[in-house]
Specification:
single chain, 181 residues, four-stranded antiparallel β-sheet, three-stranded antiparallel β-sheet, 3 helices, 13 strands, 23% helix, 38% strand, elongated
Length: 181
């Protein structure tokens, strides 16, 4: 049994939780989020806490056991997301590589013959802190991570000089170049 799944989730102040028809929805100061539960996972509220439990009579018990801790973590991330939010920081490395804020979109100059314009999905905000520093913010942890990965995919760091887009504090292992005669 999952040790993470057994822990109760404390509902923070200023957050309202609603459980209806196997959908748990949270509303807080930063926005609202919802999650569809699968069969075999049960959620109940007791004394300002959410308790996630398994249904032992569910059909595919192996699947339910695997998702037990996951759903507890997803619900906990919803609580953190609507109160504090999530963010990922990115850095651009390379001569002439930069990002420019264009309303909600971001225009990248990454050494291609054209500029790359990136439009974030709904619920995600991208801030250009400096021409070489970006911050991806939102209330859904999965979406924030996916948008940051999509931006990094535009020009991943190359192994010889390290040029490209990388996460803050990401270490890029560099290869040795060609040796001269």
């Amino acid at each position: 049994m999952s040790r993470i799944g057994k822990k109760p989730i404390t509902i923070p102040d200023k957050v309202t939780v609603d459980i209806k028809d196997r959908i748990i929805s949270t509303k807080g100061p930063l926005g609202e989020d919802a999650l569809q539960l699968i069969d075999g996972i049960n959620v109940e509220m007791l004394d300002n806490k959410i308790i996630v439990s398994r249904d032992d009579n569910a059909g595919n018990q192996k699947k339910v056991n695997g998702y037990f801790g996951l759903f507890r973590t997803l619900i906990n991330n919803m609580m953190i997301g609507v109160t504090q939010g999530f963010e990922k920081n990115l850095e651009i490395t390379g001569v002439g590589y930069r990002a420019i804020q264009k309303e909600e979109k971001v225009q990248f100059q990454l050494g291609f013959s054209h500029e790359v314009i990136f439009a974030p999905p709904k619920g995600i905000k991208i801030e250009v802190l400096d021409t070489t520093k970006l911050k991806v913010k939102g209330i859904n942890k999965e979406m924030v991570g996916q948008v940051a990965a999509n931006i990094r995919k535009l020009k991943p760091p190359e192994p010889y000089k390290g040029k490209g887009i990388r996460y803050k504090n990401e270490v890029v292992r560099k290869k040795a170049g060609k040796t001269g005669k």
